Amino acid sequence: MLSPWSQLFPISSFHLGFTTFSPSPASIDEHHVISVRLADSPLGIHKITRSLTHEVVCPPPTLHPSSDDPQLAWQARYPKGSCSPKTEIPGGFGFYLGGPKEIVSLLEGAKEAVFGYRVMFEKGWEWVKGGKLPGIYGGIGDIAYRCSGGRQNDRCKCFDVRLMWRRGGQGEIYAYLPINETNTNALIAVPPCSEANPDYGISVGIGAWIFGSGVWTTIAQRVQLNDIGRADGELQLWINGECVIHAKGLIFREDEASHIKGMHFQTFFGGHGSDWASPKDQHAWFSDVSGAVIR
């Protein structure tokens, strides 16, 4: 089985990376990776959903403890009845993450990047209908923010590819890309099942993997921007080091000013409405946040 380090960086080479994972100093130097604390300022966290918290805690032991298990993690709380941040009982947390300043400056001119993290749902987790998980976002200036939640305006100027869990722990990418037939056709073709939701994003690769509870899952996501005027963008996802989704022929941007910005680090139950809500108080933990500019 691949090490957590290899699962977070499932690519052969890259220009510069960062991680809150704790490999040996030799590994850091060899791979051109900046070691960063799991904290807001070093990770370039901004636009925090103020009604929610993401405190750093010592996560509980897993069902199968390992020496590679994270020692520190952000804790997400999902109170009973909680749903999206806009509902009466909010849950989870939300913010945007660009990484350390060296990464942020490189992203402005980058064509390809990978971001990842590890997540653990508490033992006995109840999945209900589904919920959101962090993923890469980007676009032009401030228009890149909030490229989700059913947004339709300026969709040619932003992209957001957060993940979701669904019933029984089925995983998917919940993609908001510029609205056009090329993107719809390419994303709908992703196995084992994909579908365009009637008024929101496209569910990509539904059931391509299954989340477990009480164990750490390592997620790494790669975006390759398209050349302007061409449909040659790519979206790739690894779960525990295995490539489970690889969509090609995509259009992430129509303007050179649109670029990868980092991660939309958001999680909550929903959807909207009580049928999406958490049936009890639940917790999840997020750790080993990492990223790299490939080129």
Please give a structural write-up:
The chain is mainly beta. It has one domain (4-293): Jelly Rolls (Sandwich), CATH 2.60.120. The protein has four helices and 17 strands. The chain has helices at residues 4-8, 25-30, 101-107, 181-188, and strands at 16-19, 33-35, 45-46, 56-57, 73-78, 93-97, 112-121, 130-139, 158-166, 171-176, 195-196, 202-204, 216-224, 233-239, 242-250, 259-269, 282-293. The strands form two sheets. Strands 1, 2, 4, 5, 7, 13, 14, 15 and 17 form a nine-stranded mixed sheet that branches. It has an eight-stranded antiparallel sheet with strand order 3-6-16-8-9-10-12-11, with helices on one face. Strand 13 and strand 14 form a beta hairpin. The radius of gyration is 18 Å and the shape is globular. The model has no long low-confidence stretch (mean pLDDT 94). Residues 71-289 form the Polysaccharide lyase domain. One of its GO terms (molecular function) is lyase activity.
